[in-house]
Design brief:
Layout lengths: L1 H11 L3 E7 L1 E16 L3 E5 L4 E6 L6 E2 L4 E5 L2 H36 L5 H33 L2 E3 L4 E6 L6 E2 L4 E6 L3 E9 L11 E6 L7 E13 L4 E9 L10 E18 L4 E3 L4 E10 L2 E8 L1 E6 L2 E6 L6 E5 L8 E5 L17 H8 L10
Parallel strand pairs: 1-22
Antiparallel strand pairs: 1-21, 2-11, 2-15, 3-10, 4-6, 4-9, 5-8, 6-7, 8-10, 11-14, 12-13, 12-15, 13-14, 15-20, 16-17, 17-18, 18-22, 19-20
Helix pairs in contact: 2-3
Length: 378
Amino acid sequence: MAVALMACAAQAAEPALVSVVEVEQRRWQQTVPLYGTLTSPRDAQLTARVAGLVDSVVVEAGDRVSAGDTLLRLDRRLEELTLDTLSASADAARAQATEARRLLTESQRLSKRGAASATELEARRSQVAMSAANLERLQAEAARQRERLARHAVVAPFDGVVRERLVEPGEYVAETTPVVGLVATDRLRMDVAAPQQYYDLIAPGMAVRIQPQSRADRSINASVAVTVPASDALARSFLVRMYVDNTAGRLTPGMSAKVLFDIQSDEAVLVAPRDAVVRVPGGGGTRMWVVGQTDDGARARMRQVSLGRGANGFVEVLDGLRAGDAVVVRGNESLGHDQPVRVRADQRSVGGTPSSGADSPARTSRALRLSGPGRPAP
C-alpha cells in the first residue's frame, strides 16, 4: 500500500525540471598527476688530475662554461723545467742518432773498398740502433712530461654552469681533492615514481606535460624516455624518466615539478558523470536516476549502481546501467521513484559540452535516446 501511495503521489506530482547525460561506453581516460624533481644528467665535482699548488682559479660560481674551457691552473714551473731538460736530452739524442747514421754510411763505403772490417761495420749498425732507441725513449719521456704539464689545468668536461668553487690560490690539492662543482643545465632529467597499476599504461614515447613549480601556469611538452621495469617493493612503484629542453635557462636542477600523464585504458568501460551519483547515507549504497519514456511522458527511475574508478568529473560504472541510459545530473537531489520529469534544453554529452536552445519534444527525445514511444524504459 505504501508503494502504491508513493507511486500515486509521484504520478500526481509536478514534473521536475532535470538535466540528463547519456552513459557512454568508451575507453577510460584519466589524467594522473605525479610529482618529482628536475635534476641534471651531468652533475660533477671536478678534481685535479695531478697533485700540486693552486696557482689561479679563473671561474666563479654561476659562470657558464663550454667543454674544454680552463677552470683552474696549478703551479707548473718545476714541471716546465723538467720538460726543458727532457727536450734538451732528446735533441742531443737526435744529434747522436744522426751522427751514428753518418758513421754507418761511411763504414759501408769503406767496406766496399776493403778499408773497413766486418766487425767495425756491425758495430756501426749497433750504434745506430742504440741511438734510435735512446731517442725514442727520450721523446716518450718528453711527451709524458708535456701531458703532465697539461694536467696542471682543470678543464670543463662538458658544457654547464659552475655550481661552486671549492679551492683558492695557494692551496695544495691532491688528486682526490674536489676543486670545482659543475652542472649541465641545457637538458634536465625528470624522474617520477609511478604506481605499479599504471605500468602497462605508461610506455616510452608517451606524451606528457610537465608543470614546474616556478611556472605552474605553463606546461612543457615532453615524452617518456624510459621506464625502469624494476619495481620498488616497498613503495609499489616503478621509475619513469623524461628529459626537458632547458636551452633557454628558465629551469634549474632541484626544482620540483608535476608531470601529467593522460592515461587511456585498452578496453571500453561504461562512463557516467560524477554529478549523477547520489550516495545514500547510513549504508544505503550508491544510486543514479535514469529518465525513461513511458505512455505518460518522461519519468525518473532509481537504479542501484556499483562504481569503479573516478577522475576528471566522471566515474566508471561497473553494474546497474547500460550504454545509452540517460542519467540525471541536475535536479536529482529530491526525485522520487517514477516521478514525472521535464528535461532541460541545456543538455550535455558525456564529454561535458553544453548545448543551448528552448525545450522541445524533439530535442528531449534526442537527448534521451529511449527505446521508443509507447515502450516503457527498463
